[in-house]
């Protein structure tokens, strides 16, 4: 396990997403609120180096915010075409 001690992974949590016109984004200033397409009980997406790896729920621990992992995502096994399905 010592070989993994020096490997860093950037962990990100996506609470929700939103789309808006660029002119609206450019007009935003301090205190602006961006509405997300999410609800307070929705799962958040957990990314490792920008790759989805898990889902979780936001939890409050005193004055800190954390994430409780609820599901580990499995990486899909790439299906190779079989004879008659296309190029191999």
Automatic annotation (TrEMBL):
Single Gene Ontology BP term?
positive chemotaxis
Where would I find the Flagellar motor switch protein FliN-like C-terminal domain in this sequence? 5-73
Q: Which Pfam families match?
A: FliMN_C
Q: Which GO terms describe its molecular function?
A: cytoskeletal motor activity
Query: What InterPro entries does the record point to?
Result: FliN-like_C, FliN_T3SS_HrcQb, SpoA-like_sf
Would the keyword ATP-binding be found if you checked this record's keyword annotation? no
Under what name is this protein listed?
Flagellar motor switch protein FliN
């Amino acid at each position: 396990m010592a070989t993994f001690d020096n490997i860093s992974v950037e962990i990100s949590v996506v609470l929700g997403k939103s789309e808006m016109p660029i002119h609206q984004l450019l007009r935003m200033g301090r205190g602006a609120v961006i509405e997300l397409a999410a609800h307070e009980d929705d799962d958040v997406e957990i990314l490792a180096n920008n790759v989805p790896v898990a889902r979780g729920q936001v939890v409050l621990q005193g004055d800190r915010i954390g994430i409780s992992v609820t599901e580990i995502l499995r990486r899909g096994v790439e299906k190779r075409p079989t004879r008659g399905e296309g190029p191999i």
